[in-house]
Amino acid sequence: MEKIKMTTPLVEMDGDEMTRVLWGMIKEKLILPFVDLKTEYYDLGLLNRNATRDQVTTDAANATKRLGVAVKCATITPNRQRMEEYPELTEMWKSPNGTIRAILDGTAFRSPIVLPCIRPVVKNWESPITIARHAYGDMYKAVDMSTDEPGTAALTFKGESGAEKTLNVQTVDGPAVWQGQHNKESSIRAFARSCFQYALSQKQDLWFSTKDTIAKVYDGEFKRIFEEEYETSYKAEFEKLGITYFYTLIDDAVARVIRSKGGFIWALKNYDGDVMSD
After folding, report:
1. I want to staple 101 with a disulfide (CB 3.0 to 4.6 A). Which of 135, 178, 251, 272 is the partner?
2. Which helix H or strand E contains 245, and what residues bound it?
3. CATH for the 106-141+181-278 domain, from 3.40.718.10, 3.40.50.150, 3.40.50.300, 3.40.50.2300
4. What pLDDT digit, counting tens, does each position of 29-78 carry?
């Protein structure tokens, strides 16, 4: 049998532990006998990320931007326990997935693979629910620190114009931990557009949920941009197809999802989407 020819290579990102073994078996038994495989190979194993000071992750992400398609194996994001397991590590490197998503600034759509022999735990789900996950910022680009005495933390923004904005975060009476996270208006808008476009291509309703009652400015900006994009660019096409865009608080959305029959796209911010899709 003649092998399928590839004209453009794809990016191959090797991973850690058993995923290296499984990916090697998949290539050997299921791909190479049938496909003239062409790849740009990047070793994203933890020790190679350490040896390159994580430059290999950035290189792999930029190669994906250039070639358009990549296959990535699962990788280890080290914590303190992993630092003990791998004493040669020089630091707790950030999530490769977070680095790659930040460079690509895309949206991750996770659709379940449905098998007739496996029924969902929620019995009233009749169709798969696709999770649309923002791929930039939030927890994956957050910075954090700990302090060991009473004091006050402030958040300061210094604009290129020289203007400054300062917000007092909290005054504490003892040791504390702190975290700061961000997102970009351009990335939020790109996330919204990709969700609306995907919903149109799949002819499915789009749900979006945040916690804008608590994070009034941060999550409120997500809500505003989604509504603005829908009203100005997508409403007419949605109505023509008979599909809807629906926003609700994350608390209400979870209850509605459990009661639903499925068959829609659920858009979530980066970390929320990670939790839901995992």
Report:
1. 135
2. strand 245-249
3. 3.40.718.10
4. 999 999 999 999 999 999 999 999 999 999 999 999 999 999 999 999 99
Give the number of other CB atoms < 10 A from CB of residue 268: 24
Give residue-wise pLDDT tens across range 79-88: 999 999 999 9
pTM of the predicted protein model: 0.78
Residue 95 DSSP symbol: P
Which of 139, 57, 142, 138 has its CA nearest to residue 104? Answer: 57
Which segments in the chain show pLDDT lower than 70?
271-278
- Contact call for residues 9 and 65 (beta carbons, < 8 A): no
- What does the block give as tokens for 249? 């608080």
Distance from C-alpha of 202 to C-alpha of 192, rounded to nearest angstrom: 15
Q: In the chain, what's the furthest Cα-to-Cα distance?
A: 73
Q: What residues contact 218, with CB distance under 8 A and at least 6 apart?
A: 183
- Residues 136/183, Cβ–Cβ less than 8 Å: yes
Alpha-carbon distances of 243 from 109, 143, 248, rounded to whole Å: 19, 39, 16
User: For position 174, what pLDDT does the model report?
Assistant: 97
